[in-house]
Automatic annotation (TrEMBL):
The protein, known as: Urokinase-type plasminogen activator
Family statement drawn from the similarity comment of this UniProt entry: Belongs to the peptidase S1 family. CLIP subfamily.
Domain Peptidase S1 per the UniProt entry, residue ranges: 1-185
Alphabetical UniProt keywords: Disulfide bond, Kinase, Transferase
GO MF annotation terms: kinase activity; serine-type endopeptidase activity
PANTHER family associated with the record: TRYPTASE-RELATED
Length: 185
């Protein structure tokens, strides 16, 4: 996908409503419950370029060492105003949550996640080749589940430092929110 030329796959659809999770506060730096449901003004037209993705069932999530893919159109580098011209879609390794806890300075971790990370996060390794950066937040964290051979939306990009060059990304796990998502679709 490339923003510099049209391929015929594009669909411009306005968002008609945003439902923020009730545990998320726009008046706080806290990123607990950093998830929302977007209602589109009209349904997307499904086809070869636009499809759906499955929500995870309980227990259907990647474990540390497995690979996930992230996607976003955010900034191409730290301290840059240039957004991606092509969709960033890097593969990253899932890390134990403790890796994110130990990689972030405690003052930042406490500001973003008062009381600690909790269990509703998924930690993903950093990568310099394709940075996940400002503007990518809200993008998908996708896992290919080998058993049934299907893609699952297992996370939502949330927080990182310096475009993820030296720090792993902290993402919101989708599984704990599936019932809330279904109730607000």
């Amino acid at each position: 996908m490339d923003t510099t030329r049209r391929s015929g796959c594009e669909q411009d659809i306005y968002v008609s409503n945003i439902v923020l999770h009730p545990g998320y506060s726009t008046n706080s730096q806290s990123h607990h419950d950093d998830i929302a449901v977007l209602h589109l003004r009209r349904p997307a037209t499904l086809g070869p370029c636009v499809g759906t993705i499955c929500l995870p069932a309980p227990g259907a999530e990647p474990t540390p060492g497995q690979q996930v893919r992230l996607a976003g159109w955010g900034m191409v580098a730290f301290n840059s105003d240039e957004t991606a011209k092509q969709l960033k879609n890097p593969s990253r390794e899932v890390l134990p949550l403790s890796s994110c806890s130990s990689a972030y300075p405690s003052y930042l971790l406490n500001a973003f996640y008062p009381g600690g990370l909790g269990t509703n996060k998924i930690c993903v390794a950093s990568g310099q080749n394709i940075p996940i950066c400002k503007g990518d937040s809200g993008g998908p964290v996708v896992w290919f589940m080998p058993g049934p051979r299907r893609y699952l939306l297992v996370g939502v990009i949330s927080v990182g430092i310096g475009c993820g060059a030296d720090h792993p990304g902290i993402n919101i796990r989708v599984a704990p929110y599936v019932q809330w998502i279904l109730a607000n679709r």
